[in-house]
Inverse folding.
């Protein structure tokens, strides 16, 4: 005998260009304008960071060009008392959360002081090891449930990270312990040179949720309004102890990092196709169609360039971190071995 024991389904959410546009306006007009302003700042930040890397001010940079709607939309959906767990490509998310631009540059310049103030924004520091931050997303969400809080945590992660053990453990624990977690996968189609099709045989990443007994949603990640809608829905569930996996379909328009050359593994034609779906372009067209666009908004680009240039200069001129800071915050009480290393390095620096 054979019988169906589970029939799961995964929905895809889109807004722009669909009948759901009819719900317009579902945020305030000012908010649409502000969102476009933030997307433009994020775009200009990316360009500036690239040029700073070429000038030697930054050693490596991971661009987010093409992923602005995914990051800014997801963060827009959060309340102030919610938490953010970033991966390493989330500069646009930090911008939307209100982190000062010069501090974001400062961190990219290798100065951890650039991310010191993030905790005031309920935002964890950047996680470089792929996928490890999912455990932090799970842990924060579980703590919220245990404390009886009604907030939630949004954790960013990439399509490649979903092949890591940490991703499995995080989703499993969240499901079992009713964590207030939203796992937000930016499926930007590549993990460095590894295309999404070779990453997993799963048809979608969102459907991975089913095995953990939690909901999975797929969303057009270049459609800012769809991202807001999907994450708002996910957060509503997460606040009640029902974790959600959101897969945002997007595209990394630039190289993986400034150390990569994406022309070696993907066609120009493919990149050109995705440029047509550029989230800024799509949102601008949407604003024009709905008569929100005005002359003042034409100046947002120049304004963003000026802001970003000023912030970059401030970061360049910032004081270097003190020698002690390299060691002082790793342990509450410094172990003897580390104390020795610190003294040894101090001598070497003096020479
Ligand atoms: C544990 C670990 N393994 C390998 C790397 C090297 N690495 C950095 S980014 C990356 C690909 C990540 O791809 P994805 O999760 O899709 O995120 P994306 O870079 O596309 O944003 C790899 C393998 C790393 N940082 N950490």
């Amino acid at each position: 005998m054979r019988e169906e024991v589970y029939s799961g389904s995964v929905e895809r959410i889109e807004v722009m260009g669909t009948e759901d546009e009819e719900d317009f306006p579902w945020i305030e007009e000012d908010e649409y304008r502000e969102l476009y302003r933030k997307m433009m700042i994020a775009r200009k930040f990316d360009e500036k960071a690239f040029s700073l890397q070429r000038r030697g001010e930054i050693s490596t940079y991971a661009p987010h060009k093409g992923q602005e709607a995914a990051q800014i939309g997801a963060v827009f959906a959060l309340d102030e008392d919610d938490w953010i767990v970033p991966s390493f490509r989330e500069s646009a998310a930090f911008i939307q959360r209100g982190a000062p631009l010069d501090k974001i540059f400062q961190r990219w310049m290798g100065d951890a002081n650039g991310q010191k103030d993030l905790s005031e924004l309920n935002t964890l520091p950047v996680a470089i090891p792929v996928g490890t931050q999912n455990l932090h997303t799970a842990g924060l969400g579980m703590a919220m449930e245990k404390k009886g809080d009604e907030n939630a945590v949004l954790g960013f992660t990439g399509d490649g990270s979903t092949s890591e053990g940490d991703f499995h453990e995080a989703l499993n624990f969240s499901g079992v312990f009713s964590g207030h977690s939203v796992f937000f996968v930016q499926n930007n189609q590549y993990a460095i040179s590894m295309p999404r099709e070779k990453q997993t045989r799963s048809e979608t990443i969102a459907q991975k949720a089913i095995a953990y007994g939690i909901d999975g949603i797929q969303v057009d990640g270049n459609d800012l309004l769809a991202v807001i809608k999907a994450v708002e829905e996910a957060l509503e569930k997460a606040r009640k102890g029902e974790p959600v996996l959101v897969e945002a379909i997007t595209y990394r328009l630039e190289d993986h990092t400034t150390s990569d050359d994406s022309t070696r593994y993907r066609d120009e034609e493919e990149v050109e196709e995705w440029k047509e779906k550029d989230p800024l372009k799509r949102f601008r067209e949407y604003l024009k169609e709905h008569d929100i666009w005005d002359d003042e908004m034409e100046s947002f680009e120049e304004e963003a360039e000026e802001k970003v240039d000023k912030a970059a200069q401030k970061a360049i001129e910032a004081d270097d971190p003190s020698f002690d800071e390299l060691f002082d915050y790793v342990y509450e009480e410094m172990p003897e071995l580390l104390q020795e290393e610190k003294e040894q390095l101090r001598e070497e620096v003096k020479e």
Q: What stands out?
A: The chain has 14 helices and eight strands.
